[in-house]
Amino acid sequence: MTIVLSTPTADTVREAMAVLREWQHDKAPMQLHPGDIGWNYRFGTAETAAVVRTWSRDGRILAVGMLDSPTLVRMTVAPDAFQDADLARRLVEDFSLPERGVLPEGAVSIEAPQGLLLHDLLSKEGWGVGEPWTPLFRDLTEPVEDPGVRIKAIGLEQAQDLADVLRSAFNTTKPTREYRHKMSAGPFYADARCLGAYDGQGNCAAVVTVWSAGPGKPGLVEPMGVHEDHRGRGHGRTITLAGAAALREMGSSSVRVCTPSPNVGGIATYKAAGFAARPEIADRIRKV
Question: Where in this chain does the record put each N-acetyltransferase domain (predicted)?
Fold first, then answer.
């Protein structure tokens, strides 16, 4: 049967999110998570729907992708379709042909889980490998240790705290207080917790947003950051522990995150919070 590529409406994104939840399990490789799309709602509901893509056969969604930028698609497929030859061939076509509306001409990247037949076909088509990333995982079967500092929920009243820390942590001017407002207005924020670590003077030192995929499923850290004025004091570990504890309270079985391998400090922070590193992975890239 024919595989159909679609861009869902704002209302039908729910179907893509539902299958993404189903596809998450603790033994799965690092892959697109419902929280990745949930975090994108900081840009708005219509804007998020516009960057989601689904591939379906006979009415069943087999793959979901999200354009993290115009030249980067992050995607995954149903667990029983990792070696589906028809799907893999269709994905390569859609990623390769700009008129399909997924990726443009020129240099582009694909983030896809390890083990997909897609990787073999991309290699045959001359796609290369990008910079290494390190996935990190922590089991949440046992209680998470107390972070030892004051943790507060980042509500609408603390929206500026979130923006300020993210701006400093990632050296960018993009985050604004509207991020928090739009996330809370999005249809999936019930699956998230946004937390801040505050010092004795009431300053927000670090923030984290974590996303559940449902009880018994792995949760996601996206994003975590420490303000430059508070680095070197263990706040990264502290806020990560707080996020892990929140996910455990929400029923998550584990928590995962992926960071560029050159980010040695970030990897050390996650390991200090009880995460274990998995083998490196890399995006597939097509150069100009």
Answer: 149-288
* pLDDT at residue 238 greater than cutoff 80: yes
φ, ψ (nearest 5 deg) of residue 101: 85, 20
Is the separation of the CB atoms in 20 and 217 below 8 Å? Answer: no
> Domains along the chain?
3-132 (3.40.630.30), 138-281 (3.40.630.30)
In 10 A of CB 203, how many CB atoms? Answer: 15
Return d(Cα 168, Cα 226) in angstroms, integer: 8
d(CA 249, CA 243): 10
Q: Which residue has tokens 């008129």?
A: 99
The position carrying tokens 């004091």 is 233
This model's pTM is above 0.90 = yes
Average pLDDT over every residue of 25-33: 97
